[in-house]
Design a protein that fits this description.
The protein is of the alpha+beta class and about 280 residues long. It has seven helices and 13 strands. The strands form four sheets. It has a five-stranded mixed barrel with strand order 4-5-6-8-7. Strands 11-13-12 form a three-stranded antiparallel β-sheet. The protein starts with about 45 loop residues before the first strand and ends with a strand. Belongs to the replication factor A protein 2 family. This is Replication protein A C-terminal domain-containing protein.
């Protein structure tokens, strides 16, 4: 993938869907025979959060959905499986990634399953179970004013760091479309901000981090940010208890400050909701 000069599509581990029961970019619902009606050639595979799926805009029922004012076709996201409902023709999963919930439908292809040597295809497909995390590649759809994702591929996540990687990528792409490319942000802010760092001495003046303008936040939020920036830590970041100790704050103050930083996309959660790391650019 390449987010430098222009947003590029990404297979994000699925090799564009070619790596096993996947989908071909350009496969759309409905007939492919209608000339000019398909979107083949402009399909993208965009990493998103479930909240972005829920908030996606659709100008009219036949239009493509839009996120950040940009059309989406294929999407990729992660979530914890809250429920599995097996029907004759499809399996419906309810996924939750901490930002929202969405239903994912995967249609059962009996002919394909039989060709694999089993009636249900369970020998060839990875096991999906409730309360475990999964990654989905598919397409956002609406039926009777209810949204769901038609899954091309859904697989269990074996490495929990994949969850963090995905959320980081979804955040990066969102910022690309809302703030511009990293190079353009650096060019716009480089002269004005120089090498300033986030200040913690007092006041609420805007500051910068690696060329990115930082909005006004409270003193407690600045202290939490400073601890996360300056304290030794592994890839998982720091737990709120550790932050409270290092910042000489109580846990409730740290949690409130963390909500501020999360709302400004300055930090992100890692292994759980109370373990944070800096979101750097």
């Amino acid at each position: 993938m390449d987010y430098g000069g222009g947003y590029s599509t990404t297979s994000y581990g699925a090799q564009g869907g070619a790596g096993g029961g996947g989908f071909m970019g350009g496969s759309q619902s409905g007939s492919q025979g209608g000339a000019g009606k398909g979107t083949y050639g402009k399909d993208t595979l965009r990493p998103v959060t479930i909240k972005q799926i829920v908030d996606a805009q659709q100008p009219h029922p036949d239009a493509e959905f839009k996120i950040d004012e940009v059309e989406i076709t294929q999407i990729s996201f992660v979530g914890q499986i809250r429920n599995i409902s097996t029907q004759t023709t499809n399996i419906t999963y309810k996924l939750d990634d901490g930002t929202g919930t969405v239903e994912v439908k995967q249609w059962i292809d009996a002919d394909a399953a039989n060709s694999m040597g089993t009636l249900d295809g369970t020998v060839s497909k990875p096991k999906l179970v409730e309360n475990e995390w999964a990654r989905v590649w598919g397409r956002l759809k609406a039926f009777n004013n209810r949204r769901h994702v038609g899954a091309h591929v859904i697989r269990p996540i074996t490495d929990k760091m994949d969850i963090t990687y995905h959320l980081l990528e979804a955040t990066y792409v969102h910022l690309y479309f809302t703030k511009g490319s990293l190079d353009s942000i650096k060019q716009e802010n480089g002269t004005a901000t120089g090498n300033q760092e986030v200040g913690y001495g007092g006041g609420g003046a805007d500051t910068s981090m690696n060329g990115r303008s930082i909005p006004n936040v409270s003193m407690n939020a600045r202290n939490v940010y400073r601890v996360l920036r300056d304290s030794p830590q592994n890839n998982e970041g720091l737990h709120v208890q550790n932050i409270a100790s290092l910042a000489s704050m109580n846990v409730n103050e740290v949690l409130k400050a963390g909500d501020e930083l999360l709302s400004h996309s300055m930090i992100f959660t890692t292994v759980d909701d109370n373990t944070w790391a800096l979101l750097e650019f």
